[in-house]
From TrEMBL:
Disordered: region residues: 1-20, 213-254
Protein's name in the database: Nucleosome assembly protein (NAP)
Keywords: Chaperone, Coiled coil
Organism, as annotated: Trema orientale
Coiled coil location: 24-55
Family affiliation: Belongs to the nucleosome assembly protein (NAP) family.
Lineage, opening ranks: Eukaryota, Viridiplantae, Streptophyta, Embryophyta, Tracheophyta
Biased composition (Acidic residues): 221-254
Length: 254
């Protein structure tokens, strides 16, 4: 018997499914190859960006030192910058502010490879509060993603530790009550797990926000920018209200 040429040979559902699965597997393998290639390019790009950052970090360093020399001639520069900063202002108690008047300079320095950490150093003139002339907090990042934090234990002069630190009020969650605890305890807070988040926050704010341009906060430019933004919003809202009133008047006239 001759087979009907007009009829197509039926493919078993199992064979069709296997064919689709093979195509899907092949497509996923090709997609993975493309992703692996992109990852390689991204790694090369990251290395190149890091090289550029390292180069310009070395160029910036003497400029930062020059800037520090100029800042030393401005009375209470860092105290004013801290108090004008929206986040850091709450970290200084009244006693801390008195101590900050003896602050000679502040320095933030990245490790040479940039990615493994940084240190924040406060240099003080001789003062009646503690023996140290240098207080440093260091953040070291490991390849595993953990952060090792070390800091100077302040050597308070007789009777000054209690006077500065005052009463230690109860903490709420992971945040300490800055208004009642000295900023200087931040240097020695390296082990308590519930304070790690806070340490990173203060360190990052100083490094990423205050240090690049402290003049902005010394001059209160940040507040002026916020004020300008609020005024613009008010003007826009006022214009919208005027337009709405005009539309309502037109509707009444009709």
């Amino acid at each position: 018997m001759v087979a009907d040429k007009g009829k197509k040979t039926k493919v078993a559902p199992e064979e069709e499914t296997e064919h689709v699965d093979d195509e899907l597997v092949l497509s996923i393998e090709k997609l993975q190859e493309a992703q692996d290639e992109l990852e390689k390019v991204n790694e090369e790009a990251s290395d190149k960006v890091l090289e550029v950052e390292q180069k310009y970090n070395e160029i910036r360093r003497p400029v930062y030192l020059k800037r520090n020399d100029v800042i030393k001639s401005i009375p209470d520069f860092w105290l004013t910058a801290f108090l004008s900063h929206p986040a850091l202002c709450d970290t200084l108690s009244e006693e801390d502010q008195k101590i900050f008047k003896y602050l000679d300079s502040l320095d933030v320095e990245d490790f040479k490879d940039l990615k493994s950490g940084y240190s924040i150093t406060f240099n003080f003139n001789e003062n009646p509060y503690f023996e140290d002339t240098k207080l440093t907090k260091t953040f070291t990042f490991s390849d595993e993603g953990t952060t090792k934090i070390t800091g100077t234990v302040v050597k308070w002069k007789q009777g000054m530790a209690a006077a500065v630190n005052g009463v230690n009020h109860e903490k709420k969650g992971n945040k300490r009550p800055f208004a009642h605890q000295s900023f200087f305890s931040w240097f020695s807070e390296t082990e308590q797990k519930d304070l790690i988040e806070l340490q990173d926050e203060v360190g990052e704010i100083i490094k990423e926000d205050l240090w690049p341009n402290p003049l902005k906060y010394f001059n209160n430019d940040a507040d002026e920018e916020d004020s300008d933004g609020d005024e613009d919003d008010e003007e826009e809202n006022g214009d919208d209200d005027d337009e709405q009133d005009e539309e309502e008047d037109d509707d009444d006239a009709e």
